[in-house]
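Quick start: what a row looks like.
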Amino acid sequence: MAEEETLEEPREDVRYELDRDRVLAITEAAHEGDAERVTELMEPLHAADIADLLEQVDYDDRVAILKVYEPEIDGEILSELDESIREEVFDLLSPSVLTDAVRELESDDVVDLLEDLEDEQQQAILGALEDNDRLAVEQALTYPEYSAGRLMQREVVAGPEYWTVGEAIDYLRSREDLPEDFYHMTLVDPRYHPVANVTLGKILGHRRDVKLKDIAEETFRTIEATEKEGNVAYAFNQYHLISAPVVDEDGKLVGVITIDDAMIVLDEEHEEDILRLAGVGDESSLSDKVIATTKRRFPWLAVNLVTAIVASMVIALFDDTIAQYVALAVLMPIVASMGGNAGTQSLTVAVRAIATKDLTGSNVWRVIRREILVGLINGVAFAVCMGVLGMIWFKSPMLGAVIGAAMIINLVVAGLAGTAIPVLLEKIKVDPALASGAFVTTVTDVVGFLAFLGLAAAFLL
């Protein structure tokens, strides 16, 4: 019975993964030109799964799949594609399929797609849109990149603030161009300034004679069209927003941002922070070509080489000491590695806290003191361990004391540097996620070697 349940119920960790056998069957059928079989295998898949499939296969398989499945490509699939292969897929699709697919999308999704295209492709798609849709997209493209104006959808459900529930319901039923997904009706004053939001649930749950302003949401925030999309995502997450109206410089309603778009931005912000901390760029993907990946990683490897040379120059200052006491060469990597790991721990916490606006001027010194104390306590604990190990391994109590003292110094400095460096970079308008890692690694390596070898030169020779 247990075996049968295992076969019927997929493991939780693979439940949402693409089935490997299905992917192989799709690629084989595509290379054989069997469009009917490919369509049959793809039919149960969600648009996001189809996009994942196109991202995971190699270029030749992608070409084969699109060649036979092209008529079934729709706007939802295109909007789910990762940016790294989006332009490549667009190049493989015929103009008619591409324009038909884009027509199905709401304005915010069209803007998101057009941002990745060359001017010629942009104009071809814009020319295929209805006049109103084209105007809305063109206006959105006039806003700065990565702003709320690019993120918003122009399709808005709005009504006067004096309306009743009944009037709102009659209006919604009479409209034939309602957005596919919306959560609020935005109430506006006579100058078309948004003043409140009313959820659809409250509209449907109250009598027809109830005033909309009497059942409006308590939490109401507007977003300026020029606001950075990272701040928009933060506002949605911080204030638990479902949707928020977007206003122009005069405070007039020009669009709306919904939670799905805000959460995509938040996810992208998190992903960028992780990639930048690792020094692999902010748009790395498994679909990237070898040359593109190499170019993106090379600069940060070069920076790491420079920092390693700096650390080596510190070691060179003590070459006589190392020559006389070979055990130092054996133990040096331990001090540097522990400092580097401790620094990375503090750095990761600090960068994340800065991104979520939890680390501010009001609590920065408290956080720095905490990280220093954590480094001190961990340093003492590991100093005892290394002190004992040094005495047993090399029969030298003084060597154990030296490496223990160096461990304490480096872990304290690691806690300080891991927090203070990203804060300082943020103050001078440099992305902490992008540049902190190299600085923290350099500091912990240099301090670790200086402390260990300097103490060794002073007390062992």
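That is the whole record. The beta strands are 158-160, 184-188, 194-199, 223-224, 243-247, 253-258. The chain is about 65% helix and 5% strand.
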